[in-house]
Amino acid sequence: MTSLKETTIRCACGQVEFRFVGKPILTTVCHCDDCQRASAELEKLPHAPKTLDVAGGTAYVMYRRDRIVCAKGHPLLQDRRTEGEPFTKRVIASCCHSPLYLDFEKGHWLSVFRDRFGDQAPRVQMRTQTRYVPAEVEIPNDAPHFRTYSLGFMARLIGSKIAMDLSHRSKKGDPDHDNPPARA
User: Fold this and answer.
1) Residue 177 is assigned to a structural domain of this protein
2) Residue 166 class from Cβ within 10 Å (0-12 exposed, 13-18 middle, 19+ buried)?
3) Does the residue 176 lie in any domain?
């Protein structure tokens, strides 16, 4: 059996730590109006790092929920909701206001703020929702960009959901599966 790569991220002050197992679903930069508004709000918090790039996008590394665990600092996690987003929250470390992840609560994945990975951050694979970028702003040419969510984006999400469901089915009766570690 092949062991999966484990990746660790921390908040800026190190009091909160997450571990990820396996490869991410996708690394993307989202330019939607909700991400722009929410990231701008997060940037206003004291000592918070910048999350918006030059074109108003927020970079995320997307992981399946079953591949993420909060290893340290769970009591320091703070939910931040933007008005008009009933199923989406951004989670920060209250100790240093580091953005950690976006949680679309109806989904099977979490979108982790790419900056938390530091030098280990996977390369950006695509930019989505670029229709929200003002015409006078130049979109970086670091990855393909799409006005909406691309077919490739949706295929990755669907594929990861199928893989997750199959993984869970094959582990039925496994004591570690029936009592999974606490997750985000």
Assistant:
1) no
2) exposed
3) no
3-state secondary structure of 164: helix
pTM of the predicted protein model: 0.88
**pLDDT tens, 45-96?**
999 999 999 999 999 999 999 999 999 999 999 999 988 778 899 999 999 9
Which 8-state DSSP code applies to residue 124?
A: P
Greatest Cα pair distance, the chain, in angstroms, is 57
Q: How many residues does the chain have?
A: 184
Report the number of secondary-structure helices (H) and strands (E) in the chain.
3, 10
Q: How many domains does the chain have?
A: 1
pLDDT in tens, 122-170: 999 999 999 999 999 999 999 999 999 999 999 999 999 999 999 877 7
> What's the CA gap between 39 and 58, in Å, rounded?
7
Query: The domain containing residue 48 runs over which residues?
Result: 7-169
Provide, for the chain, the percentages of residues in helix, strand and coil under a 3-state DSSP scheme, each rounded to the nearest 5: 30, 30, 45
Quote the tokens at residue 27.
């690394």
DSSP 154: H
For residue 113, the domain's CATH number is 3.90.1590.10
DSSP-based three-state secondary structure for 19: strand
Is 41 within the bounds of a domain?
A: yes
Question: 1 lies in a domain?
Answer: no
